[in-house]
Amino acid sequence: MEFGHPYAILRPVRSGNTFEETIEHLLQAIKLGLFPRGEKLPPERDLALHLGVSRATLRDALAELQRAGYLEIRRGRYGGTYILGSPRLAEDGETPLDPEACQDVLVFRSVVEPAAAALAATADLSAPARQHLQSCLTDVQQADESTYRTRDARFHIAVAELAGSPSLVAAVADVRARASALLDQIPLLSTNLEHSNAQHGALAEAILHGDPVRAESLMRNHLEGTASLLRGFLP
């Protein structure tokens, strides 16, 4: 397994709604930071092949995401499709948090992510696996406010990757993307970020030391902190 590669997490399109699902999968990858701001997307041929769609469908999806402000298509010698990031809603047009959607995300996270942490701690981790988790931990701990949430998401997905189940990775990536959409609607609080990073460090240590009980407990506690913030911002 190649750790950290976007294609390990970016799922192929499976339904008959190829255009819509291509948009969904690309947006999820952008929001999760699999394709970081400022970087160039893989070549169209490779990306279309991985997604299992035609290049025409992929181009249509990329053009829509360009119009929406997520991508920039450049021409010339250094041309390609570059990531601009996730546009924020205008302050006066933001949609308030939906209590039912929020609760659904929180419940699902509370099931899959502690399980992923426990499984990661019981896994026979290779040197690349350990290095991948440590690298993602360093990235989130060094992130500023503009990059924190995508790097935070990447750390959580890395935990799931270590568990060794592609289905679990897909589940964590999906729920983390939904959680990120909710978190984007509330402010970043510096004290919370410091606390979260301390929890990330302790969680990584428990996994790397093979302590599944502690890893699961730490993840549950960490998620409850996020849940408290989201509940606090509910209308």
TrEMBL record:
Keywords: DNA-binding, Transcription, Transcription regulation. Residues 16-86 form the HTH gntR-type domain. Gene3D superfamilies: GntR ligand-binding domain-like (1.20.120.530), Winged helix-like DNA-binding domain superfamily/Winged helix DNA-binding domain (1.10.10.10). The keyword Transcription applies. Pfam families: FCD, GntR. It comes from the Bacteria. One of its GO terms (molecular function) is DNA binding. InterPro entries: GntR_C, TF_FadR/GntR_C, Tscrpt_reg_HTH_GntR, WH-like_DNA-bd_sf, WH_DNA-bd_sf. CDD domains: WHTH_GntR. Coiled coil: none annotated. The keyword Ribosomal protein does not apply. PANTHER family: GLUCONATE OPERON TRANSCRIPTIONAL REPRESSOR, TRANSCRIPTIONAL REGULATOR, GNTR FAMILY. This is FadR family transcriptional regulator. It comes from Kocuria tytonicola.
